[in-house]
Amino acid sequence: MSSETETYAVIIAAAGQSKRFSFGGDSGIEQESWFDSATSKKPYAKLLGKPIWLYSTEKFARRIDVKQIILVVAPEDVSWFRDYFAVEIDKLLLMVISGGAERVDSVQKALNIVRNNIDYVVVHDAARPCITDEQIIEVFNAARQHGSAILATPIVGTVKLVEDGEIKSTIPRAGLWEAQTPQVFRRQILIDAYARRTDESPIPTDDAELVEKSGFNVSIVPADKSNLKITTQSDLKFAEAILVNKK
Question: Does residue 1 sit within a domain?
Answer without folding.
Answer: no
